[in-house]
Amino acid sequence: MSDIRVPLYVKISNQLTEDILKGTYRTGELLPTEDELEKQFQTSRTTVRNAIGILEREGLVYRKQGKGTVVQEPKTAQNLNYITSFTETLKEKNIKVETGSLIVELINPPQKIAALLNLKKGEKVYLIQRMRIADGIPVAFMSNYILSRFTPNLTDKKSMLREKGLYQILEEEYGLKLHRAVETIEAYSSGPLETDLLQVPEKTTLFHTTRITYLEEGTPFEVVISVIRADKYEYRVYLEGRPPKTHQSS
User: Fold this and answer.
1) Which pTM does this prediction carry?
2) 179-202 per-position pLDDT tens digit
């Protein structure tokens, strides 16, 4: 058994994190003062501040001048080692997910999309455009371009798309297996269009993502372009080990 001792400030941070996640301290409320936390955990001011510093770095609280430490809404984190839909990621965190505006139609794709999907001349795709609403707040606008030859009559699934994640429908209704995906994530500031769609001020930081999803046999199946509020969502990358060393000639 390991005899490594966990520092007290980490234990305090863990306890406060648990209290926030289970609703003891709700979004917008203040944590106890540093004096109160000192007494509660019978420790020093420095230890308390180190614990709160962890919460700040994890995006669970922020300090407000003259007020104290305020609990903020935790961001939803998508792990980048799995192919998951936006809906699946949110529901896993017990967040209520709704669909605002929804379009499902068979279209002639833009040239860029046709190239990414290696489409034959004249081949059409299904376009699914949705506003995703999390706990009543618009957080993402998504445009999915999907190969129509694998998803006949996808327009008939429109009502289903209001209840289930797209990937769940592709698996259950069409028997498709999503094998791998390549996702490009960029940060940029919102303009008039995003301000209107996501109901945010101009120059709000957003994620702009482009994902290409492939089937088992290597066929590019989907391109999804998303605009996501960076204050409500984050991406988490898991790294393990060092890359293999390559022989370099002198």
Assistant:
1) 0.67
2) 889 889 999 899 998 889 898 898
The token duo for 7 is 């520092």
**Claim to verify: residue 57 and residue 179 sit in the same structural domain:** no
Look up the CATH number of the domain holding residue 18: 1.10.10.10
- Clarify whether residues 81 and 67 are in a common domain: no
The angle formed by the CA atoms of residues 105, 141 and 197, to the nearest 5 degrees, is 110
pLDDT score at 246: 57
- Residue 1, in any domain of the structure: no
Alpha helical stretches, state H, the chain: 8-21, 34-41, 45-57, 86-92, 111-116, 158-161, 166-174, 192-198
Does 248 map to a domain? no
Residues in contact with 138: Cβ distance below 8 Å, sequence separation at least 6, in sequence order: 100, 131, 132, 197, 198, 199, 229
The domain boundary, picked from 17, 37, 71, lies at 71
Distance of CA 153 to CAs 75, 128, 129, 216, 224, Å? 36, 13, 16, 22, 19
Tokens for 213? 């999803």
Determine the Cα–Cα distance for residues 234 and 250; give it in Å rounded to an integer.
43
| Last-in-domain residue among 17, 39, 71 | 71
Mean pLDDT of all residues in 215-234: 90
Residue position matching structure tokens 């080990």: 241
Classify residue 20: in a domain, yes or no. yes
Task: Give me the chain's average pLDDT, please.
Answer: 86
Domain coverage including residue 197? 76-236
Q: Coil, strand, or helix at residue 30?
A: strand
